[in-house]
């Protein structure tokens, strides 16, 4: 579907209204959600400080040894200091993502919490809008689909996706060291990946921009775009899990609404970037995603739900989780501009550490 200013404006409006409705939803304000997210936030602080302390010890010892070596042999320790400063910044940014990554991993083990949050949000939207406007209620229609979870399968697919991202990140990182072509690797890889997941127009724009701008900015643009896209897929996972759309169906769903969904993600993305409160921001964004769904998709019919449930019970459902997508696993805080820029490899210096970080599933298919 071609992008339009109207679609982008609609996406922004849905995000803002969705956040407002999520905050005002009395169901979300009940004790069970407050207590759950309070525990998650406290856990975020604990995990961050424990991880920070555990990593600072070996880094401090290594830095002390380097300084001692420089003192004994008369070397200048300015370069090692700059290196350790850069590494410390990367570790600090990575640790800020640990709480949200942990929460997303827990959702594989216990997805009921976010499903309840999503369904409660749909019910509230039905009361506030659907009944008043004469529309068919969405929550009751989606509830016709059985809620089933393949815990072991989810974890296995999670690990497979992470491994794929790691392999591709290493490959692209290695290509940036090749003379002559290294400078073009990131723009081309970025353009190709964006075209496959976000459309031709944005892909070309990203490729050209990544080539023109300083290397660090190109990485930041790609990081933010893919984090936004992956976040939206996570937020809509309760809908996809219930309707059991396969890889191609999910890809088609996004292509038909890509301008609206992109603008929506551009707003709610910043809710999960709030330090230490990213878990709470994710909960608000999850509820807001229900508002997006209501306004971009018609509620499924009971006949569709019955047919889908029958196919699942018979084992005829083909859940293809091996995504046929190019996946650059990037975060929204690239710091390549702090590194070397020779032969193009500096611009991709952060991709090696992006891969293990499955902060979001970039393309869950």
UniProtKB/TrEMBL annotation:
Residues 302-327 are annotated as: Disordered. Keywords: Membrane, Transmembrane, Transmembrane helix. The chain crosses the membrane at residues 37-62, 82-110, 170-192, 198-219, 260-293. Residues 317-326 have a biased composition (Acidic residues). This is Transmembrane protein. It comes from Jimgerdemannia flammicorona.
């Amino acid at each position: 579907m071609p992008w339009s200013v109207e679609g982008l404006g609609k996406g922004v409006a849905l995000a803002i209204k969705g956040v407002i409705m999520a905050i005002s939803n009395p169901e979300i304000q009940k004790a069970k959600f407050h207590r759950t997210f309070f525990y998650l936030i406290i856990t975020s602080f604990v995990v961050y400080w424990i991880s920070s302390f555990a990593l600072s010890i070996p880094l401090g010892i290594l830095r002390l040894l380097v300084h001692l070596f420089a003192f004994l042999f008369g070397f200048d320790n300015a370069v090692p200091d700059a290196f350790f400063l850069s590494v410390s910044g990367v570790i600090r940014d990575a640790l800020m993502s640990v709480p949200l990554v942990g929460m997303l991993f827990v959702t594989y083990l216990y997805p009921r919490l976010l499903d309840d949050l999503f369904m409660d949000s749909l019910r509230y939207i039905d009361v506030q809008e659907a009944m008043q406007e004469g529309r068919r209620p969405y929550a009751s229609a989606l509830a016709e689909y059985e809620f089933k979870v393949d815990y072991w399968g989810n974890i296995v697919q999670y690990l497979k996706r992470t491994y794929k991202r790691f392999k591709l990140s290493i490959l692209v990182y290695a290509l940036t060291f090749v003379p002559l072509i290294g400078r073009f690797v990131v723009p081309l890889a970025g353009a190709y990946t964006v075209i496959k997941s976000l459309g031709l127009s944005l892909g070309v724009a990203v490729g050209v921009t990544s080539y023109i701008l300083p290397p660090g900015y190109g990485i930041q643009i790609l990081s933010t775009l893919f984090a936004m896209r992956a976040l939206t897929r996570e937020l809509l996972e309760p809908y996809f899990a219930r309707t059991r759309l396969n890889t191609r169906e999910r890809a088609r769903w996004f292509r038909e609404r890509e301008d609206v969904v992109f603008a929506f993600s551009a707003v709610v993305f910043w809710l999960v970037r709030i330090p230490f409160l990213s878990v709470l921001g994710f909960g608000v964004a999850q509820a807001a995603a229900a508002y997006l769904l209501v306004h971009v998709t018609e509620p499924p019919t009971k006949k569709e739900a019955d047919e889908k449930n029958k196919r699942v019970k018979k084992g005829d459902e083909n859940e293809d989780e091996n995504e046929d997508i190019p996946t650059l696993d990037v975060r929204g805080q690239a710091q390549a501009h702090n590194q070397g820029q020779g032969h193009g490899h500096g611009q991709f210096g952060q991709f090696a550490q992006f891969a293990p970080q499955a902060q979001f599933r970039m393309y869950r298919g």
